[in-house]
Amino acid sequence: MIRGFSILIFVFLFFSPTRVVSASSRPLPERVKIGLATARPSLVLNLPAGTVISTPEGPRWQVELQTGLTLTGRNDGHLVAGETDFGPGPLRFAGPGFLGWNGRVYRGEFVVVRRPEGLTLINELAFEDYLRGVVPAEVDPTWPMEALKAQAVAARTFALARLGYHQREGFDLCASVHCQAYLGAGAERATTDAAVLDTVGQVITFQGRLISAYFHAASGGHTEDVEAVWPTATPFTYLRGVPDPAEVSPYDEWRVELDWSTVQAAVAAKYPGLGRLVSLVILHRTATGRVSTLELVGEKGQVQINGQEVRTLFGLRSTLFSLEVVHAPVPLVRGEDLAHLPVHPSPAATAVAWSTLLAAEDREFLPIQLVVVGRGWGHGVGLSQWGAKGLAEQGYTYIDILKYYYQGTEVEDWRPSQDIPPVPAEKGEAS
Ligand SMILES: [Zn+2]
Question: Is residue 17 included in any domain, yes or no?
Answer without folding.
Answer: no
